[in-house]
Specification:
This protein has a single domain, classed as Tetracycline Repressor, domain 2 (Orthogonal Bundle). Helix content is about 75%, strand content about 0%. It contains nine helices and no strands. Helix 4 crosses helix 6 and helix 5 packs across helix 9. The radius of gyration is 19 Å and the shape is elongated. It comes from Aggregatimonas sangjinii. InterPro entries: Homeodomain-like_sf (IPR009057). This is TetR/AcrR family transcriptional regulator.
Amino acid sequence: MKTSDLTKAWVSHGYSIFAYEGPTGLKIERLAKLVGKNKSSFYHLFADLEVFTNVLLNHHLEQARILAQKESECPGQKELVEIIVAHKLDLLFNRQLRIHRENKEFETYFTKITQFSVPSILPVWQHIIGLQENSYLARLVLQLTLENFFLQITDETLNTAWLNGYFDNIRTLVKQFKNTKSVASLDGTV
């Protein structure tokens, strides 16, 4: 196995473990068994778990950029749901960054990713929830929804049916707000 292939194998297994279990799941001996190599191979490639975690964070940053690009080109809910399902592992990894953001490095990556992912999804989000005319309110709803979304997602819930139901519930909530007379103050106007 070439070094680049071996590195990819370590990163692939580590990324998956982090996504499902968080940083506490990253154990060198466990990873070595999954990769089929001894622990010295890990130390040769990454030196220690801290360096390896940094490699995982950079890998996630690249995956998040790919996801954001796809979301920015997305015409509607059906396509967005397909993209989300295809990037389940990346979203679960990002969920772990949210959960463990007391770690300053995780928070830094979490913040960096949020800075480019929110603007990329906002246009399709406005369309999905029916707020094309009010980007300010759509952004507020998106920010609240993202917190809720990442609290709820699991390997089992990140599927087409659950995501469509989730979007339907948000759309219903927005429709109720739009039908309420006092909603004008929610968009920042008086």
